[in-house]
């Protein structure tokens, strides 16, 4: 793989719209918008800016890394639509990466933790529900992604283990989950988190099938109907 090989990464699973351009060894540039509902207007603009920067630096963008969920239904659809359009137009592959796995990977790259620790990424799913999974400090999956309602009994199997609860769903769980060795950290979903996994999967040839691939929503989408529309039927 050439040192000039770069990927465009797209993260739209949360309220943060984040895109990044990176090589295997460096984060070249990033674009981020934390304004609510900014994804639709910013994704294509951010991508254009990052692709132009890649061109100016003489980098070859060979794939698009995409946060595949779980997370915001609307955000995931926007990211997936852009990624598929880009892939069809350029012939470049999509590397789909679990948002939870990317969170854990990004956290591991920026923090030193005990080798016996467990990482539990959490994405807010409303009220006391989160999308979550668990990983070892070597990023081995211990429990598969799921939607979980948090109670005082949650994660008691980690009673004697250092546990790092990360992501935008972690802070609200701090008062409910009582574990002596637990840390609750609001680590953001960012495109840069996918760097390490993306290059590993590119080398393995693990690409999304454009014809059939869909984001991992975990839960079915439930559209809310306005009361006035129900009353006026």
UniProtKB/TrEMBL annotation:
It holds the Pfam family TsaD. One of its GO terms (biological process) is tRNA threonylcarbamoyladenosine modification. SUPFAM superfamilies: Actin-like ATPase domain (SSF53067). InterPro entries: ATPase_NBD, Gcp-like_dom, T6A_TsaB. CDD domains: ASKHA_NBD_TsaB. Residues 37-159 form the Gcp-like domain. It comes from the Bacteria. GO terms for cellular component: cytosol. Coiled coil: none annotated. PANTHER family: TRNA N6-ADENOSINE THREONYLCARBAMOYLTRANSFERASE, TRNA THREONYLCARBAMOYLADENOSINE BIOSYNTHESIS PROTEIN TSAB. This is Gcp-like domain-containing protein. It comes from Porphyromonas gingivicanis. The lineage of its organism: Bacteria, Pseudomonadati, Bacteroidota, Bacteroidia, Bacteroidales.
């Amino acid at each position: 793989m050439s040192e000039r090989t770069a990927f465009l990464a797209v993260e739209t699973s949360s309220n943060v719209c984040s895109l990044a351009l990176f090589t295997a060894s460096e984060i070249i540039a990033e674009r981020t918008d934390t304004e609510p509902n900014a994804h639709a207007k910013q994704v294509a603009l951010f991508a254009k800016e990052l692709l132009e920067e890649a061109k100016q630096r003489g980098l070859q963008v060979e794939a698009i890394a995409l946060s595949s969920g779980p997370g915001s239904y609307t955000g995931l659809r926007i990211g997936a639509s852009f990624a598929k359009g880009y892939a069809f137009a350029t012939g470049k592959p999509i590397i789909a990466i679990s948002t939870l796995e990317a969170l854990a990977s990004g956290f591991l790259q920026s923090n030193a933790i005990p080798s016996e620790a467990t990482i539990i990424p959490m994405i807010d799913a409303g009220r006391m529900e989160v999308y979550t999974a668990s990983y070892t400090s070597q990023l081995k999956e211990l429990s598969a992604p799921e939607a979980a309602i948090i109670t005082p009994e949650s994660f008691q199997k980690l009673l004697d283990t250092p546990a790092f609860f990360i992501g935008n769903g972690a802070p609200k769980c701090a008062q409910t989950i009582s574990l002596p060795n637990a840390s609750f950290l609001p680590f953001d979903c960012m495109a840069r988190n996918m760097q390490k996994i993306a290059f590993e999967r590119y080398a393995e040839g693990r690409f999304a099938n454009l014809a059939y691939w869909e984001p991992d929503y975990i839960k079915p989408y439930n559209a809310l109907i306005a009361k006035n529309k129900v009353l006026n039927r």
